[in-house]
Amino acid sequence: MGLTGLFLITFLVVHVGVNSCIFVNDGGETFNTAAHFMSHNWILRIMEVGLFAGLILHIIQGLILWKQNRAARPVKYSANKASQNSAWYSRSMGLLGTLLLFFLIIHVSKFFVDTKIALYADGGANDASHNLFEEMKEEFQKWWVVVIYVLGVISLFWHLLHGFQSAFQTFGINHKRYTPIIKAIGVGYTIIVCLLFALMPISFYMGWIS
Amino acid sequence: MSLDSKIPHGEMDKKWTDYKGHVKLVNPANKRKLEIIVVGTGLAGASAAASLGEMGYKVKAFCFQDSPRRAHSIAAQGGINAAKNYQNDGDSVFRLFYDTVKGGDYRAREANVHRLAEVSAAIIDQCVAQGVPFAREYGGLLSNRSFGGTQVQRTFYAAGQTGQQLLLGAYSALERQIALGNVTMYNRHEMLDIVKIDGKARGIISRDLVKGNLERHFGHAVLLCTGGYGNVFYLSTNAMGSNVTAAWKAHKQGAFFGNPCFTQIHPTCIPVSGDYQSKLTLMSESLRNDGRIWVPKKKDDNRKAIDIPEEERDYYLERRYPAFGNLVPRDVASRAAKERCDEGYGVGTTKLAVYLDFKDAIVRYGKTEAGKTGNENADHNTIVEMGKEVVKEKYGNLFDMYEKITGENPYEMPMRIYPAVHYTMGGLWVDYELKTTVDGLYALGEANFSDHGANRLGASALMQGLADGYFVIPYTLGNYLADDIRTAAIPTSHPAFEEAEKKVSDRITQLMNIKGKQTVESFHKRLGKIMWDKCGMARNAKGLQEAITEIQALKKEFWSDLKIPGDINEMNPELDKAGRVADFIELGELMCKDALNRNESCGGHFREESQTEDGEAKRDDENYSYVAAWEYKGESDWQMNKEPLTFEIVKPTQRSYK
Amino acid sequence: MEHYNMNLTLKVWKQKNTKAGGSFETYQVKNISSEMSFLEMFDVLNEQLITEGKDPIAFDHDCREGICGMCSMYIDGRAHGPWTKNTVCQLHMRAFKDGDTIVVEPWRSAAFPVIKDLMVDRGAFDRIMQAGGFISVNTGNAVDANSLPIDKKDADAAFDAASCIGCGACVAACTNGSAMLFVSAKVSQLALLPQGQPERESRVLNMVAQMDKEGFGNCTNTYACEAECPKGISVSNIARMNREYLKAGLSTEE
Question: How many CB contacts within 8 angstroms connect chain A with chain C?
Answer without folding.
Answer: 112
